[in-house]
Amino acid sequence: MIIHLNSQLHNDQLENLALEHKAVWFRSGETPVFVLPAAIKSLPDALQAHTTAHWPMESDIQLASRSYRSQVREVRWGNTTIGGQSNNTVVIAGPCSAESTDQLKVTAELLTDLGIKNIRAGAFKPRTSPYTFQGLGIEGLKMLAEVREKYGLTVVTEVRDATHVDAILEYADVIQIGSKSMYDHGILRRCGKANKPVLLKRGFGSTLQEFVQCAEFILSGGNEQVMLCERGIRTFETKTRFTLDLCGVAYLKEHTNLPVILDPSHAMGYAYGVADLARACVAMGVDGLLVEVHPTPKTALSDASQQLNHQEFRQLMSTLNPIAAAVGRTLV
Amino acid sequence: MIIHLNSQLHNDQLENLALEHKAVWFRSGETPVFVLPAAIKSLPDALQAHTTAHWPMESDIQLASRSYRSQVREVRWGNTTIGGQSNNTVVIAGPCSAESTDQLKVTAELLTDLGIKNIRAGAFKPRTSPYTFQGLGIEGLKMLAEVREKYGLTVVTEVRDATHVDAILEYADVIQIGSKSMYDHGILRRCGKANKPVLLKRGFGSTLQEFVQCAEFILSGGNEQVMLCERGIRTFETKTRFTLDLCGVAYLKEHTNLPVILDPSHAMGYAYGVADLARACVAMGVDGLLVEVHPTPKTALSDASQQLNHQEFRQLMSTLNPIAAAVGRTLV
Amino acid sequence: MIIHLNSQLHNDQLENLALEHKAVWFRSGETPVFVLPAAIKSLPDALQAHTTAHWPMESDIQLASRSYRSQVREVRWGNTTIGGQSNNTVVIAGPCSAESTDQLKVTAELLTDLGIKNIRAGAFKPRTSPYTFQGLGIEGLKMLAEVREKYGLTVVTEVRDATHVDAILEYADVIQIGSKSMYDHGILRRCGKANKPVLLKRGFGSTLQEFVQCAEFILSGGNEQVMLCERGIRTFETKTRFTLDLCGVAYLKEHTNLPVILDPSHAMGYAYGVADLARACVAMGVDGLLVEVHPTPKTALSDASQQLNHQEFRQLMSTLNPIAAAVGRTLV
Amino acid sequence: MIIHLNSQLHNDQLENLALEHKAVWFRSGETPVFVLPAAIKSLPDALQAHTTAHWPMESDIQLASRSYRSQVREVRWGNTTIGGQSNNTVVIAGPCSAESTDQLKVTAELLTDLGIKNIRAGAFKPRTSPYTFQGLGIEGLKMLAEVREKYGLTVVTEVRDATHVDAILEYADVIQIGSKSMYDHGILRRCGKANKPVLLKRGFGSTLQEFVQCAEFILSGGNEQVMLCERGIRTFETKTRFTLDLCGVAYLKEHTNLPVILDPSHAMGYAYGVADLARACVAMGVDGLLVEVHPTPKTALSDASQQLNHQEFRQLMSTLNPIAAAVGRTLV
């Protein structure tokens, strides 16, 4: 159950009430918001005097639910706005890993040329083997900061585990929580206290219910700038790296109030299918697209097979606008 | 390995050669085609004198492979052509089950009004419970024939098991092999000898490799009019009925020479997501779309939750043409 | 809902009542049994006068449910009895495919020597490629009949599709319905009218609910001799061929009244794991075990990698008895 | 490739060589061990003079591979030894969550009475909803320490994320890395530097390859005391919570040198199946068993449905010894 309380209440009063009712709470603007487990269906008597509105909920998808907020939440950073009244579909592109300042500059020039405002690149890579490239770490973050400065791009980059979440919060414009870290309470709770937008990727073995509930950790921490990213789930099919779950996207659009971003590159795992899938994603009317592009994919230090080269990416971008227009969206 | 032999050879000569080499064979037009297991990598000496061309293959995706035929095969029936040089995307629509002549006529009028030439409806339903509606059987096929006659539509309907494949072959314009029957050798072999197009649905628990290999049973029987239909695979996600595998569609488009048809209705299982998914499918540049539409979905005898009503379907159709145009396709 | 009616009612009376109430019906011994969809929760008034007992049910797992019959049903053929009061665990062993009379005789001698009474071997193989060995068909069935005659073994063999179900019914002692044919209505309905036990394998992409509902097709046809066989489901893990679902077996034992047989060979796909898994299966306290054994696995015409050789099989058998004893079962 | 180097080399020499060859390195006892990516198949010339032995490897399952060490590694803590020459199967039991000192004492008395030496209980719970019980945190760890002191039990408890890994290392005898944290580099790297055994649970959406590669992070950090825990994977089947992957266990036993522990409680999710599954696990001949037991499961603050009560647990334990004996193992 979500409860809006009287905004005159002081924080220590709220803290006491929350403790008493085992509520998670935060302020949304001025409004104190309490969240009780969904199993509680009627407003506790002791809270009635303080309550301005309340919403009994069906499951622990609460703050993210359309039953609570009927419109998609607006999320803003730098010059980018998605959700809300915007009808914008943001394109976020760049290499899998930050490998060098030169590599990032070449990418930044491509993006700038195409009117794309957001660059992505990983500095802390959640690799599955300890014996391969693990990312450049802080050094990679500094390279990204340099490119942001020079090209006026905003930066989306991934936090791998709770040991460096503060560094990511310092350098990134949007904090990406990767698929393998979706459940990481250390990251989720820290991001709940951050004032930057969070792009939460779905765990590839996670249900939609679990995915949105992880977003609830951030939302209920008081950070309401959360975007959901579907990037492919693991199925029995192995001809492709993962299976992009567009049925799940239809579910998220219908039932949640969070912007939805799609990552066809990780889902497919092979460059040849990315353009077709990206077009499908845009036709779904989603709020954003995350695409991996690399100056020379074959020499990439990670995810070599799935990154588009610059020519393939330019060609893709040229086909996306008419599809976006057909579904009433604008690429930004 | 696929081998084209000299077309002058008589059938009994071919039969003997095939027996000797454990080849599956048929005539494609005049050309005798032998198929040996993919494990055989070099042309058998005894066949060299008779061979006009041959293709060593990587796996038992052979006749369906782009390595054998670099273009998508053309498939034609009634007034419909897909694949080949056509750039057509066929829309096939109608109720899950044939329930009455009236129901089919109302549907047929909707389709005719929208310029759609193909009606779908099941007469033999592969239900999972013996205690629910099992379809009208032959009676349902007769209703479909009546509608075909009256409205000039062509009919796509499903064979459930090998006991009634001849009846389906008599009444249908396109034989649909359902997801649960994909492996049915009785059906596949019979369809390999038929002269009507076959729409083969992917088993929801089947890999792409197995799916295309089932198409090989039909192709190697001599029926080269085969379409592949992706309709959702079973994954751990249960908020939606199945998971539409568009990564798999990208694979099929890249590696096979068969037209690809998509069925968003069965994948989603809920009407609310079908329109978004249908738009995504068309944006993928596929050869066809199978959509369930029912005059009054709530009273449908099967799949009540996933069928669009007429208004929803009209609205969907009005949005598909600009997307098709954006990817160079024409809806038929 | 399951309804037992007055046994004095004539078949034509029952037929009329069944039509009127859309019931599936059969006689269990003398007792007429009606089954209505589980959605019907109260006994129809018009049936009350004829009803001797009735069971409202939660789902369309009805005749197979423990709510209907609290004990495991007894299934008998030849000298074998499982379920009921027996505490027997039957071992059914043999090669994947019947390849020759000699091969079957060698196997039969092994089995006889070990006190095993049931031989398995496939004559109609549901292969996924048309270009590999498809089984010996009727010829294979005749070989099996010869071995039965000579060694006094009973024969378990698989029906692939509805085109040859009568042949299987003629030659087999137990009809095995394979994983790929689990949904085959042609086979299920025919087996429902047969008077031989049926071993129904779970589709590798099928839920437990669907699996048991397919058994309901046979049971509600009047054949109450049905065994459920778990043989591995398809998951994302590909190091092994399938994933043996022993959690599912625990579910079946708790909720259904049908004997449960396990097939570790197909689940594992590799000989090295079969013995460990077979021991685990016996420790689960199941009603039977299906193991593939071949005189020379490396030369087998199908499933070469998963068949045990004779020495491995003998060694396995020597370890099973103490485990069976520890859980109060007897191997037969 | 794994390389053993001359033990006379100083750490700074080794550090330089490792940097030069992009090797991960540690000392196993005195022996310096380098690990290069498996893609490297021949010993680098510059290392030959320093090399005492080397093993080219097929995949990045390297230190954990049977190709490197043909015997299962011994792991020891408190009075417990598994692996190596021991043939021991350790039983680790206790409630899902530490809830109170009283609850833990009651459990400890049960375990002591049954001769069980290891208690499990979670203090930091990786819940999927922010609105339910999250564990007692440090307070829970202190309760566990108190119970260890009083009853002489050793404690297995879970680290949830990298923010409290040092606390867990201080209080636990065995550090459990939970399923949702399997990929957590912060935890894995810290545990690689720890001198306590680590029980690594398989991510429920993770392949066996990824699972063992996560163990490689710990092993290559220099901590060779790693145990693998299979606890059920996520599949399409939802009648049970997860699917215990015993085929995967057979794979791990064949291909890796790490002890294997099984957790039937989390796999099943329902108390009714846990005993049958536990017996199956012991019959597989594994190195350990993790079972959830709670004084009053219905009032448990987490995982209420899957915990055995004391009577059920006693009954289970009484049946495990004969099975263990039948497969040559001793329960400890």
Tell me the β content of chain A. Answer: 15-25%
Widest sheet: strand ordering of chain A: 7-8-9-10-11-12-13-14
Oligomer: homotetramer
Q: Runs of chain A with pLDDT <50, length 5+?
A: none
Span from first to last CA of chain A? 36 Å
Largest interface, by Cβ-Cβ below 8 angstroms: which chains and how many residues each? A-B, 45 and 45 residues
Cα radius of gyration of chain A in angstroms: 20 Å
Share of helix of chain A, binned: 25-40%
Number of strands of chain A: 15
Broad structural category of chain A: alpha/beta
The DSSP helix count of chain A reads 11
Give the biggest beta sheet of chain A: 8 strands, parallel, barrel
Global outline of chain A: globular
Order of helices and strands of chain A: EHEEHEEEEHEHEHEHEHEHEHHEHE
Mean pLDDT of chain A: 97
